[in-house]
Every structure is written in structure tokens, then in C-alpha cells.
């Protein structure tokens, strides 16, 4: 059995992101995995990085981070340490994740938890290597405009910036678009596709 941490970041409880996260979570359970699901808005995750947390290297930093008084942050850090897989579901807002999820990265993917840096310019030594990172984004931008005008910054954020600090997991990313005017039939087809992608990414628990 693998332990999979599932993050949802969308403020509206009726959003398609919620249906996506629910479907992926259900599929992971059917595959025999342990799923630790977190709706960051429901949990009121505090995304504000403190001054003490703003450093990136050194044993002193790790000892400070280990004493974080925020119980929710402490829980997320401990679950990331134990996670074999990470699933992240969020909309594309301004080419970025929602601020609450960016704050989650700032406060959870930290030295002493996900990685260690001997010095600020060095390469990360993974401490909690995640085998699989599965990211699902919703968007209303067309494929052509995203590619030609914006360059798909979310692909870089998750694949090139975050993944190396999680130990270089296999990255699977699916963008569903356009979502706002999509039909119920299209949404059902997307959910069925995500069932297959979840199975391909994580497989059945041994």
C-alpha cells in the first residue's frame, strides 16, 4: 500500500476541481492506497511564511522549522515526509496556483522536511522522496494561447521548480480546458480519463 497526499485548492465548494479531487481520491482508495486528503480552504491553511521560515539552508533553519507551532502546518509536513505520492488539484490563475497553495509550498516543502541544502546555491538532498507527482489543472485558456502567448508557466512550476525538491518524482500533469462552459458530458469524460491516468500513475497497491 502506498500513502498518497491529495491537495485541493479551490475556494468554491461547487467547483469542478472539487469533483476532480473526489474522483481521484475514490480511485486511489479502490486501487488500495491510503489517501490523506486536504482541502486547503476548508482547513484554512495559513499561507503566510514567517520570518524564521524564510531561510533555505543550514541546521539551525531545520531546527526552527521542526518547532513550528502551527498544528496544521506541522501535520502537513509530517504527512509529506511519509508520502509515496502527491496529487495536487487546482485552477490556473494568472499562470500560478492559488495563493493558498503557493503558501503551502512555501511552508511545507521546506528544509528538514522535503530536502536539505548544504548551502543556498547547492543542489537539494531529498529527505522525503515522492515517487509520483500528479497535477491536475483547470483552465479556460485554449491550448494554443497557453502555449504561444504564456508558455504554460504551471508546467515549469511543478515539473522544474517543485519536483526536484521532492526527490525528482515521475510527474504526470493534465490540464482540462475550457472548463467554464463545458457540458456535463464533457466533464464526465474528463473524470473518466482521470480514472485511467490515476491508475496509470499509481497502479494497484501490492
Binned, the helix content reads 25-40%
Approximate shape: globular
Summarize model confidence as the mean pLDDT.
92
Task: Classify the oligomer.
Answer: single chain
The SS-based structural class is alpha/beta
Radius of gyration: 17 Å
Topology, number of strands: 7
- Order of H and E elements: EHEHHEHEEEHHEH
Which consecutive residue ranges, at least 5 long each, have pLDDT under 50? Answer: none
Strand order of the largest sheet: 2-1-3-6-7
SSE map:
Blueprint: E1 3-8, H1 16-30, E2 34-39, H2 59-66, H3 71-82, E3 85-91, H4 99-108, E4 115-116, E5 125-126, E6 132-138, H5 143-150, H6 153-162, E7 170-176, H7 184-202
Parallel strand pairs: 1-2, 1-3, 3-6, 6-7
Antiparallel strand pairs: 4-5
Give an overview in words:
The mean pLDDT is 92. The protein contains seven helices and seven strands; from the N terminus they run βαβααβαβββααβα. The chain starts with a strand and ends with a helix. The strands form two sheets. The chain has a five-stranded parallel β-sheet with strand order 2-1-3-6-7, with helices on both faces. Strands 4-5 form a two-stranded antiparallel sheet. It has 206 residues and is α/β, with parallel strands linked by helices. α1 (16-30) links the parallel β1 (3-8) and β2 (34-39). The longest helix has 19 residues, at 184-202. α1 (16-30) packs parallel to α7 (184-202).
Question: What's the short version?
Answer:
With 206 residues, the chain is α/β, with parallel strands linked by helices. It has helices at residues 16-30, 59-66, 71-82, 99-108, 143-150, 153-162, 184-202, and strands spanning 3-8, 34-39, 85-91, 115-116, 125-126, 132-138, 170-176.
